[in-house]
Specification:
Length: 580
């Protein structure tokens, strides 16, 4: 590819809404272009990366015996009504109507459609096991789309679905996919960890998330450096031996000092040790008048960040809420946290008015009785907190648990460490959840109908771009791993407009590398060296070859790997050996 024929469009500054480095760099490198909240154009440079990611996934999925199909983006609501998800799924599911007023959804995932295919096509045990996958556009109306492709509303996912005759066979399908995922993420060249995840109502131990390690990750991973133990925070907390300890020991003996008590004090009052991995704790109150009309709403947000040190505990504003920190309504907070109406409050603020307060800790809802308090916005300290000591023991439905770095690993083989990660893949044993709901059966050896055992396996294709950049960048830009770089090598001729020799040598090297199947780009734009180098360092091409008159006289060019401090002079003929 020649740069003049391709499309290169870089920016000096990232747009103001880009918060994390991958989003900033993708925008600056011209990989994506925002069209709406969480909706992006994939520009030519970014699309090349997406295509390479997809190609690796395809190869490994095919090698693992999965077969590719393609299911529609727009799906009739009927199938989703069969499983109940049309109603259950909440606002993340985008529902649309056609001209006849019929309901459709824009697929966030495809269990319903694939199960519908399976119940029609897979009739006999002889056709099992079967694994179908597709790489398709998804839409999830995320509460907070952000970080560019990392949490988009429209994004690309590879989703695969396995069908088996019994639980054992489904386990083998699961293990097979788990192994394929390891090969896929190995090939991407990313540092990742497969962690056990919660299986929810399905039960069992077959759910793993593939997490790319990155400090900006929204997830926390608990692992033991000296053993195989690794789990996501939700599962680690659920299984922690001290689970519920904090909540159960809710002290009623202290009263915060009006005007002096900090959020940390309140956390202590609530029995949440400051080492607790509570990402956010929200207390919400609505003040109502006699008719029950809301006259004032208040919110407190406690944030416990990172490795949960005391000095990282702070109260903060609840971003994105209408009216800001203090005057959001309880309904808005419920919406913000994606919980059902009625999860929170309302409670009265007037001393003596006692209504139940509910606390959300990271979407885990705990109920608390009779609690009256106020807040001081200026320094985010709680003031006037009036803990009802004469009240009955709060009924704290304790789902607040803690896992702390340094705790003993559940396998007894060391201590726990905590890392942040980005969920890029998820493998999940589904059992007969969907086949039962949709009556997807096959005939076994004895001719009896049996429900199919299912598994589902997702990879966030577009999220991988963001995750790879979070892990691989420097002050100058992106550093793509070779396997998914938009181009593997860029040839930068200096003064090709003045020197026939340079132009000829650049063309020749370009032709040779192309003939060898190297994904090479020739920068024939005639840019000054500084601007040219800055562009390719920003875009993150892993290998660069610079040709200039002086070097060529000695038969040499300059090679520089994207992570190298300086260029190395090499004979033209030796360039290839650097591209391995
Ligand atoms: P998350 O916890 O980040 O919301 P999820 O658990 O809802 O993700 P899954 O249903 O497991 O996601 O989907 C499979 C994969 O799709 C995820 O592992 C992730 O890589 C990707 N993915 C999910 N939501 C998004 C999104 N909004 N934008 C980009 N990729 C996404
Ligand atoms: Mg999600
Ligand atoms: Mg998840
Ligand atoms: Mg998931």
């Amino acid at each position: 590819m020649k740069a003049t024929q391709f499309f290169v469009s870089t920016l000096k500054e990232a747009p103001a809404d880009a918060e994390i480095v991958s989003h900033k760099l993708m925008m600056r490198a011209g990989m994506i272009k925002r069209l709406g909240a969480g909706i992006y154009n994939y520009m030519p440079m970014g699309l090349r990366v997406i295509r390479k990611v997809e190609a690796i996934i395809r190869e490994e999925m095919n090698a693992a015996g999965a077969v590719e199909c393609l299911m529609p983006v727009i799906q009739p609501a009927e199938l989703w009504q069969e499983t109940g998800r049309f109603d259950k799924m909440g606002p993340e599911l985008l529902r649309v109507k056609d001209r006849h007023g019929r309901d459709f959804i824009v697929q966030p995932t495809s269990e319903e459609v694939i199960t519908d295919i399976a119940r029609q096509e897979l009739r006999s045990y002889r056709q099992l096991p079967k694994n179908f996958y597709h790489i398709q556009t998804k839409f999830r109306d995320e509460r907070r789309p952000r970080f560019g492709l990392m949490r988009g509303r429209e994004f690309t996912m590879k989703d695969a679905y396995s069908f088996d005759r019994d639980v054992d066979a489904a386990g083998r399908s699961y293990d097979n996919m788990y192994a394929a995922y390891c090969r896929i993420f190995d090939r991407f060249g990313l540092a990742y960890r497969a962690v056990a995840a919660d299986t929810g109502a399905i039960g069992g131990d077959r759910s793993h998330e593939f997490q790319v390690i990155a400090d900006t990750g929204e997830d926390a991973i608990i692992y033991c450096p000296t053993s195989d133990y690794a789990a996501n925070i939700e599962l680690a907390e659920a299984l922690a031996p001290q689970g519920g300890r904090a909540a159960a020991s809710l002290p009623l003996t202290k009263t915060p000092t009006p005007g002096k008590s900090t959020c940390a004090d309140v956390a202590e009052l609530l029995g949440l040790p400051l080492t607790q991995t509570v990402k956010s704790l929200v207390l919400a109150t609505d003040e109502t008048d006699k008719d029950g009309t809301i006259v004032k709403s208040q919110v407190w947000l406690l944030l416990v960040r990172g490795d949960h040190e005391l000095n990282e505990v702070k109260a903060g504003k609840l971003e994105g809420l209408k009216g800001g920190f203090r005057f959001a309504t309880v309904a808005e907070i419920e919406d913000h946290f994606g919980c059902k109406p009625g999860y929170l409050g309302p409670i009265g603020l007037t001393a003596g008015v006692k209504h139940p307060v509910k606390i959300i800790a990271d979407r885990t809802v705990a109920h608390m009785a009779d609690f009256v308090c106020g807040a001081n916005e200026a320094d985010f300290h709680l003031t006037g907190v009036n803990w009802g000591r004469d009240l009955p023991e709060p009924d704290l439905v304790a789902d607040i648990r803690n896992v702390v770095a340094g705790d003993a690993s559940p396998d007894g083989k060391g201590v726990l460490a905590i890392q942040r990660g980005i969920e890029v893949g998820h493998v999940f044993y589904l059992g007969t959840k969907y086949s039962a709901a949709m009556n997807a059966t096959f005939l076994d050896e004895t001719g009896k109908p049996k429900l199919m055992e299912m598994g589902c396996y997702g990879i966030g294709v577009t999220r991988i771009l963001g995750a790879a950049i979070e892990q691989n960048h420097d002050a100058r830009g992106i550093i793509w791993p070779d396997a998914i770089a938009p181009f593997t090598v860029v040839i930068c001729p200096i003064g090709a407009d003045r020197s026939e020799d340079v132009k000829a040598a650049a063309d020749k090297l370009y032709g040779e590398l192309k003939a060898l199947g190297v994904d090479v780009l020739l920068d024939d734009r005639g840019e000054r060296p500084g601007a040219m180098f800055a562009d390719w360092e920003l875009i993150g091409v892993p290998h660069r070859v610079v040709l200039g008159d002086r070097g060529l006289k000695e038969g040499q060019v300059e090679y520089q790997g994207r992570r190298d401090e300086a260029a190395t002079k090499v004979a033209v003929a030796d360039v290839l050996s650097f591209l391995k």
